[in-house]
Amino acid sequence: MTTAPGQLPVAHQPPRHPLDPDPAPATKARAVFALGLIGALTGLFVGGVVPATVALQLARQARREAYASGGYLTGAAWLRQGERLAWAGLVLVAVAVVTLVVIGVVRLADAPFGQDYAPNVD
User: Where are the transmembrane segments (predicted)?
Assistant: First the structure.
């Protein structure tokens, strides 16, 4: 095979079997990305724990389906990004919860303990 100067040689693909399915985008991969994005955006408000958890569960299912399909399901990049966003959302939820607990403990420590009597009461 000859090519013109500056062109790369074309790799020949083996012929596909006529019964092989066409590669199709995995719908769960986009759902994982969307839920991961929602989880990351609402992570500081503690509401991100639900979509992030659902995204991680869907990601497990999508990975199993992609493996079982033998490479005919596409969308691995969406899946990876969605998982990363979901984990970021869970980290933000953890940071928000720890911050709220620390603020609560500090406020509780500043509060007077017991009955507060007037200065002229013995």
Answer: 31-56, 85-109
- The token duo for 30 is 């986009």
Number of domains present in the structure of the chain: 1
Q: Which two tokens stand for residue 119?
A: 């200065």
Residue with the bigger pLDDT between 13 and 76: it is 76
Q: Judge whether 116 lies within some domain.
A: no
Asked if 45 contacts 96 with a C-beta cutoff of 8 angstroms, the reply is yes
pTM listed for this prediction: 0.75
Q: Please indicate, yes or no, if residue 5 is contained in any of the structural domains.
A: no
User: Which residue's structure tokens are 């020949």?
Assistant: 12
How far, in Å, CA of 24 to CA of 112, rounded? 65
CA–CA separation, 57 and 90 (whole Å) = 13
d(CA 102, CA 56): 28
Residue 103 has pLDDT above 60, yes or no: yes
